[in-house]
């Protein structure tokens, strides 16, 4: 037993408890997250993720832990626990966290199977298409199927010649769907555009969040230029709503500056009550690989309403 004789030695003992296990198990887990602050001014409050007026927020800031442990020559346990961290609003003091991807599973020569809360493989299929991901200009404003579900089983095959197959299955959940559903995705190329300069995905979702949809996504990077496109046909499970959605995105890196633009349109009336078009433009400034500042403007046009938002933000990934 260690005897603590002073405040200094107590501090040293507590520090060693935090640091030594991390050093000893560094190959097993990583703590990661995103810290972001944004000042935004939004016109009418019609769009998602942005309230009317001037707001200071921490959009989709989060912290998580992920890792793996080799069990034997056949199986490795994998896990992820991630929460969104809030705190800028008065209501956030009583509910500062909300659930994000949280799961436990196994991987091996067969691929990987995880159980828990996870992005559907339909959402996952977007890759690096969305230049305004997790902002007011996110394609989820008007494109259906960008969902994360609890109580899911996700299977992902190992890559073979730059190709991968994955599927999400969710049993019936009264909170999100009328019946059990699934999403299946075929990927060719590198989703992160690091191993290959191209990424293509074909994906279908059936009944998850009461949506049936199919999409094709293509992203290509040539030196500093990145281009992306999406086509999607969506319909509601009850057949009362259906239509097509399109997204075009482009960005160009100039030293540390990355100007970008994106156009999205959808007439299925699933995410919005009417046909919707959104045009977003902005620029990122990359201080380093982890830290960036950004400015964006986005305009949402609906049949009976419209909205626009301008934002200045600072983001740090760790």
TrEMBL record:
Subunit structure: Homotrimer.
Occurrences of domain Porin (ranges): 13-303
Compartments it resides in: Cell outer membrane
Membrane topology recorded in Swiss-Prot or TrEMBL: Multi-pass membrane protein
Name of the protein described by the UniProt record: Porin
Example GO biological process: monoatomic ion transmembrane transport
GO molecular function, one term: porin activity
Primary localization: membrane
InterPro entries noted in UniProt: Gram-neg_bact_OMP, Gram_neg_porin_domain, Porin_dom_sf, Porin_Gram-ve
